[in-house]
Design goal:
- The chain is an alpha/beta fold.
- It has one domain (about 25-240): Vaccinia Virus protein VP39 (Rossmann fold, 3-Layer(aba) Sandwich), CATH 3.40.50.150.
- It is built from 8 helices and 7 strands, in the order ααβαβααβαβαβαββ.
- The protein has a 7-stranded mixed beta sheet with strand order 3-2-1-4-5-7-6, sandwiched between helices.
- The protein is globular, with a radius of gyration of 17 Å.
- The termini are far apart.
């Protein structure tokens, strides 16, 4: 939050006075390590609380962790609830974005992702390339105080690390690798492992057409019935009912 950003009486960003006050310290602790909006971070926070409260079995999985901000939110929320037995799986190249495919297009402008990356300098602070070395991610996540042996890092393209390194049962599945091919592979390999009552979050459904197409095709092909509710202009969240 910038110094000029207005605050509410609850010390949160203006317009968010309805958020749980317990969320705000967690938000401030992890927001530096994520490109995710406050709406998506709050949805993730509430999803973790729901899973623990409802006793949904399984580990947590994120594909596309960047600097680890969303994993930090998971870990901080679990610690807040006194639940530190679950493993959190972090799948990423930890070397930046792999090449996009023909289906990967910016949803609003129609510009191909390949064209965007071609005009952007490949450096650590460029959000489009999303370069975040593993050691930096590990430091960020370790700062949460969550047991380090419960944080598992799987380096490489998801097409190569999944399903081999995936847990047998998943309670929360957060997909944030942007592209069509990776999102499709993640859904095909991990959604069947998502427990009944588990939470699915698609971070870039409204941002990259490839992520939306992969999701829509998977649901249509498998006949999966799930309400993907809008979090904000890009994120979607749903609960597996069967």
């Amino acid at each position: 939050m910038s110094a000029s950003e207005p605050f509410t009486a609850s010390h949160g960003p203006a317009g968010y006075a309805d958020l749980d006050p317990e969320f705000l310290p967690l938000y401030h602790a992890c927001k530096h390590a994520t490109m995710t909006s406050i709406e998506r971070l709050y949805a993730l926070y509430k999803a973790v609380r729901y899973i623990v409260g409802a006793g949904i079995p399984g580990d947590f999985v994120e594909c596309g962790v960047w600097r680890g901000g969303s994993v930090m939110m998971m870990a901080l929320t679990l610690r807040q609830l006194g639940e530190t037995r679950r493993s959190i799986h972090c799948f990423d190249t930890f070397e930046g974005m792999p090449p996009p495919g023909d289906n990967d297009v910016h949803h609003r402008t129609g510009i191909r992702a390949a064209a965007i990356l071609a005009r952007e300098e490949r450096r650590d602070d460029n959000v489009y390339w999303a370069i975040a070395p593993l050691d930096g991610v590990q430091r960020n996540v370790a700062s949460t105080g969550y047991p380090v042996d419960k944080i598992l890092y799987h380096k490489g393209k998801v097409e190569e690390t999944l399903p081999g390194r995936s847990p047998p049962e998943v309670a929360l599945l957060r997909l944030d690798t942007d592209w069509y091919a990776s999102t499709r592979h993640e859904l095909e390999t991990l959604y069947p492992r998502l427990a009944r009552g588990g939470v699915l979050i698609i971070d870039d459904y409204g941002f990259w057409r490839g992520a939306r197409q992969a999701t829509d095709e998977f649901l249509a092909r498998t006949g999966v019935s799930i309400l993907l509710n809008r979090i904000d202009d890009t994120g979607r969240i749903g609960v597996k009912i069967g």
